[in-house]
Design a protein that fits this description.
By secondary structure, the protein is an alpha/beta fold. It contains 14 helices and eight strands. An eight-stranded mixed beta sheet has the order 3-2-1-4-5-6-7-8, sandwiched between helices. Strand 4, helix 4 and strand 5 form a beta-alpha-beta unit. Helix 1 packs across helix 2, helix 2 runs parallel beside helix 13 and helix 10 crosses helix 11.
């Protein structure tokens, strides 16, 4: 990637933008942190502080590079070698921002959107040097979850994809480059399938939100953290591996044991989902749950690092 400077621009100071700022500054990049609303800075600084603490617990203490908050887009972009957009998930907002950003930067500076669903080709349309625009989709909390889906649009150049991949790996992320664009990419489509099935189970009174979370936490979630779906089922086939697994269980997919299409979201279903989730939280605040999540993720990532497998392999760059 271009090495004019160790400065990056993060555009948008919400939960995702603040998570990016925490990870990137910990990894040694000065961050120009832009949001048009000055009042959001204190909350963003809270997230950044929590992120730095979690990263220090994961990879060892170090002095993060400066994060300079500004309400002036030009100041955030000045000298940036990479741009990570994290504005609200509205196509019109992102396109308006991209118009200003793409016109202000040199043609070799990659502009990545944190969008969780939009097609990059739509974001590229009408922009200056659209070949450097792509999706760099992270997961919350960005400072600990290492997956970043890189989604090129029709105009994205191979050089931009490679620059983005190099950049994300340098800050301790697993860069997953998609072959083609699709709405919601890979991981969110998988999450939505599980979420849709869960809503049906609640809607029909089959299970509560707490039971569904327990089913994941104490069961397949533990295996997914190590191997994911396919290697897990590969082992489920015994000595015959995946071939035997598919031959044995594949025919049952003609009559799948799931609902697939989502239920109608009624006020009654919303109340069920919300009240059951609050019951599962058991009086713990969002801040308390965020702290628990971060400590648990640090422990899991460290355990995986000791085995040199999965997400544990992404920690080393954060120590350099």
């Amino acid at each position: 990637m271009p090495t004019k400077t160790k400065k990056v621009a993060v555009l948008g100071a919400g939960l995702i933008g603040a998570g990016w700022a925490a990870r990137l500054s910990f990894a040694g990049y000065e961050v120009g942190f832009y949001d048009p609303v000055a009042a959001v800075e204190p909350r963003a600084r809270e997230v950044i502080g929590r992120g730095h603490a979690a990263l220090a617990a994961l990879a060892g203490s170090r002095e993060p590079s400066p994060i300079r908050f500004t309400t002036e887009l030009e100041r955030a972009l000045d000298g940036a070698c990479f741009v990570q957009e994290a504005a609200p998930e509205r196509e019109d907002v992102k396109r308006t921002l991209f118009t200003s950003v793409s016109a202000a930067l040199d043609s070799d500076v990659v502009i990545a959107s944190s969008s969780s669903a939009f097609l990059p080709t739509k974001l590229q349309n009408g922009m200056t040097h659209p070949e450097r625009i792509l999706i760099g989709h992270p997961f919350n909390p960005v400072y600990l979850i290492p997956l970043c889906e890189i989604v090129p649009g029709i105009a994205t150049s191979p050089a931009a994809v490679e620059s983005a991949k190099t950049f994300y790996e340098a800050v301790g992320m697993h860069a997953l480059v998609m072959q083609k664009e699709i709405d919601a990419y890979i991981a969110n489509r998988l999450q939505e399938a599980l979420w849709t099935e869960a809503l049906h189970l609640i809607d029909q009174g089959i299970a509560t939100a707490g039971q569904i979370d327990d089913a994941v936490n104490y069961g397949p979630g533990l295996r997914w953290a190590i191997m994911g779906t396919f290697l897990t089922f590969h082992l489920g086939g015994g000595a015959g591996g995946m071939r035997h697994f598919v031959e044995h269980f594949g025919p049952s997919l003609e009559n799948p044991n799931c609902f697939m299409k989502g239920p109608k979201i009624t006020p009654e279903l919303i109340e069920k989902i919300a009240s059951q989730t609050e019951a599962k939280a058991d009086g713990r605040s969002i801040a308390e749950l965020e702290s628990l999540r971060d400590r648990a993720l640090v422990a899991i990532l460290k355990a995986l690092e000791q085995l040199d497998t999965g997400a544990g392999q992404t920690i080393k760059p954060l120590r350099q």
